[in-house]
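User: I'm curious whether this sequence folds into something compact or stays loose and floppy. Could you predict its structure so I can see for myself?
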Amino acid sequence: MNQAEVSQRYDIPVSILQEYESWGLCDVVKIVMGEWQYDDQDIERLSTIMALHDLDFSHDEIESYMRLLLENKNGEAACINLLNNQRQKKLAAIHLEEKKLERIDYLRHIIKNSHEK
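Assistant: Here's the prediction. I'll summarize afterward.
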């Protein structure tokens, strides 16, 4: 499949496909008649890339993750570290939002109590 076909079939933005192509993560040159040709392995990798985008990984973090993922066991350990770091960021953001909710509830409580008096 070419870029347009993959984009349409799997709903992957062309910008992400171009990003993937620029990284040159494949062992084999996959350009036929001037167009990159995607295979099942590419689709699997693109699925991971889309998941990382959804998790708010930066462009550089995604590229690093994908390069590490294709390495040996040491790469997998580094990927786990990247995921753990992202998880910690998400937890910190959740805790911050929980504190904000507590403040909202406190202000609601004050208003409610002032009307009851």
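Summary: The mean pLDDT is 89. Strands lie at 31-32, 35-36.
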